[in-house]
Backbone:
C-alpha cells in the first residue's frame, strides 16, 4: 500500500523508483532497477565498440580498450560506491557486459576463459574495480577527518544489526571496514 504523504496540503504522488543524479533508487534499495538500466546503457555502448572492431579493418586492441574505458566502463562504474551493496546476482549482470567488451577488444573467442581475458587485456574484474573505487573514496574523505562524509563512513553504530542479520545489505562504511581489516591488506601498511 503506497504511503499517504501530503505537502502543503496536497497529496504527493507515490513513485516506486526515483532518479537522482543518475541513480535509480527503489523502495527497498535493492538496486535491481538501476542495474538493469546500467546494463541496457552498457549494451548500447558495447554495440558501438563492436562496430569499430571490425576483424579486417577495425581498430587495434589498445584503441579498443581505450574506447571501452571511456564509452562503457565509465557507465558501469559510475557511483559504484553506492550501488555496490546490491546482491551479487544483480551485480553479475554488469560482469557479462565487461566480459563481452573484453572479448571484443582482444578478439578472443566466446569460449575463452574469463581469467585469460583479464591477463590479455590488463583489466581487473569489476568487483575489484568497485572495491578499489570505494577505498579511493574512503581515503579521499579521510584527508578531511572533520568532514561529514568521513564521519558517516567511520560510524559503526549499526554493527549489532549486521551481526544479528547477516544477510542484510551492508552500508558503505561497514563494507569499507571489512575491506580495510582484510588479512590480504595487513602487510601493506594500509
Residues:
Amino acid at each position: 500500500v503506497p504511503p499517504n504523504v501530503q505537502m502543503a496540503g496536497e497529496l504527493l504522488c507515490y513513485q516506486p523508483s526515483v532518479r537522482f543524479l543518475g541513480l535509480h533508487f527503489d523502495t527497498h534499495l535493492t538496486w535491481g532497477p538501476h542495474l538493469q538500466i546500467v546494463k541496457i546503457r552498457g549494451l548500447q555502448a558495447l554495440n558501438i565498440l563492436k562496430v569499430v572492431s571490425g576483424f579486417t579493418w577495425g581498430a587495434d586492441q589498445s584503441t579498443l580498450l581505450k574506447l571501452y574505458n571511456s564509452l562503457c566502463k565509465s557507465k558501469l562504474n559510475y557511483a559504484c560506491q553506492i550501488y555496490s551493496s546490491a546482491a551479487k546476482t544483480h551485480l553479475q549482470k554488469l560482469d557479462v557486459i565487461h566480459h563481452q567488451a573484453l572479448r571484443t577488444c582482444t578478439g578472443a573467442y566466446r569460449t575463452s576463459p574469463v581469467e585469460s581475458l583479464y591477463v590479455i587485456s590488463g583489466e581487473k574484474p569489476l568487483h575489484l574495480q568497485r572495491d578499489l573505487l570505494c577505498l579511493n573514496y574512503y581515503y579521499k574523505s579521510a584527508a578531511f577527518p572533520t568532514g561529514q562524509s568521513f564521519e558517516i563512513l567511520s560510524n559503526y553504530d549499526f554493527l549489532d544489526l549486521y551481526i544479528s542479520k547477516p544477510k542484510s545489505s551492508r552500508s558503505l562504511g561497514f563494507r569499507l571496514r571489512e575491506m580495510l581489516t582484510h588479512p590480504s591488506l595487513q602487510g601493506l601498511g594500509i
In short: The beta strands are 6-7, 10-11, 17-20, 23-26. The two ends are 47 Å apart (CA to CA).
